[in-house]
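2024-03-11 09:14:02 INFO worker-7 job=invfold-0412 stage=load source=structure_tokens
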């Protein structure tokens, strides 16, 4: 057996591959649902309403970052350390769930006020209001628990069920442009139902009880996790904020054409995130035990990630015209060009994975927040200029440039803090 074959065999047998596979299957269900529903919604609703649905979803997902509050970055590590301690894991899980539910209900009230008593989101206020159930879904989503307990297969299976139910519900409810409000509502209903049941099963399986926690503990969690939350919301704005800006500079038709191209590319953009989540636990252990093994493990994972994302970028770029033809039922040159540009965002995003791992294993929250917000500010400036002068094409180019800056800013701040030197000499 060749060295290359041995390497592939070890990769497939490893926990990293298992985690990455389940996360990919989880996201694959999202991608498959988008592929099936996009042509249906584009035909039934038209490009204008489809663009507004995508815009409302982007806004709600931004609010969803507030609900998640960055807990996915550090709580899985906390749970992994108390996996065999019933009282400790019960306390952590209850504190996170209650905190997220409190934030979700507060944001639902804010959205209701903004849509009903102000001119915010006037073009799609009804769609946005019907989308708020997604915030409850974010609060109940138990990814942080299953990641900490290395049971990601549960997420991939239940997400497939939720997306199937969502698909059926949309096909039953959405028949014409007036039904646009039911699209995101259906996603919220199925998500809350399935994730609520999964969370109930987790409590039963772990033999723990749900208990309401004091507002003092909620406040403590919010204060402790502020920098991780800040980094998370900046990351979301970095990836999706340009789309919200674009709505101010182009017609709803062009917004819809951009949304089609973005839908696939943004789903693929999660590949670097999956790799980070897949290797973080093992990288953390190796960092504390054997720095040479840690660096070798990180380097191998990084190279594999680059290879995967580059291959994906080439494949999507080559087949872009067929993908757009399938999704929209017509040859939309603008969407094809946008998809070809955006298809390499996952590859560029992969460049920053080693930086993210180094920051997370050393818990350098300040560096993470600083780097992300610098990049996000730069992206907003570039996206505003690009969208104003060149429309959706300008936005796509701005996002690509921003991803390169994201890597270099993280790399520079890590070097300035001496993390690379500390890792080598540990």
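2024-03-11 09:14:09 INFO worker-7 stage=emit residues=426
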């Amino acid at each position: 057996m060749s060295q290359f074959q041995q390497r592939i065999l070890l990769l497939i047998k490893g926990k990293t591959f298992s985690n990455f596979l389940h996360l990919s299957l989880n996201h694959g269900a999202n991608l498959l649902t988008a592929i099936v529903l996009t042509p249906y919604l584009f035909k039934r609703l038209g490009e204008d309403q489809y663009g507004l649905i995508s815009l409302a979803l982007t806004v709600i997902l931004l609010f969803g970052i507030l609900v998640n509050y960055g807990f996915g970055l550090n709580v899985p590590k906390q749970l992994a350390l108390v996996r065999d301690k019933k009282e400790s894991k019960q306390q952590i899980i209850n504190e996170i769930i209650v905190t997220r539910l409190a934030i979700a209900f507060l944001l639902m009230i804010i959205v209701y006020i903004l849509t009903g008593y102000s001119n915010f989101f006037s073009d799609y206020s009804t769609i946005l209001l019907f989308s708020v159930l997604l915030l409850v879904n974010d609060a109940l989503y138990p990814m942080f628990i299953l990641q900490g307990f290395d049971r990601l297969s549960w997420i991939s299976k239940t997400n497939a069920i939720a997306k199937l139910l969502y698909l059926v519900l949309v096909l039953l409810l959405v028949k014409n442009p007036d039904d646009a409000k039911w699209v995101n509502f259906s996603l919220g209903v199925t998500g809350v139902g399935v994730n609520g049941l999964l969370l109930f099963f987790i409590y039963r399986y772990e033999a723990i009880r749900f208990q309401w926690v004091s507002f003092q503990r909620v406040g403590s969690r919010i204060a402790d996790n502020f920098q991780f939350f800040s980094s998370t919301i900046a990351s979301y704005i970095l990836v999706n904020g340009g789309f919200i800006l674009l709505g101010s500079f182009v017609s709803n038709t062009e917004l819809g054409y951009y949304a089609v191209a973005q839908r696939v590319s943004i789903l693929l953009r999660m590949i670097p995130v999956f790799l980070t989540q897949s290797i973080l636990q093992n990288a953390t252990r190796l960092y504390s035990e054997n720095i040479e093994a840690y660096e070798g493990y990180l380097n191998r994972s990084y190279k594999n990630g680059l290879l995967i994302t580059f291959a994906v970028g080439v494949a999507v770029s080559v087949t872009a015209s067929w993908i757009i033809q399938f999704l929209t039922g017509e040859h939309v040159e603008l969407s094809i060009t946008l998809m070809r540009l955006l298809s390499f965002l996952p590859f560029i995003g992969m460049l920053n994975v080693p930086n993210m791992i180094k920051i997370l294993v050393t818990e350098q929250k300040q560096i993470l927040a600083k780097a992300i917000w610098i990049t996000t500010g730069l992206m907003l400036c570039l996206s505003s200029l690009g969208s104003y002068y060149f429309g959706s094409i300008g936005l796509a180019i701005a996002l690509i440039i921003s991803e390169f800056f994201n890597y270099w800013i993280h790399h520079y701040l890590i070097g300035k803090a001496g993390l690379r030197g500390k890792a080598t000499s540990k």
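2024-03-11 09:14:09 INFO worker-7 stage=report msg="Residues 15-68 form the longest helix (54 residues)."
2024-03-11 09:14:10 INFO worker-7 job finished
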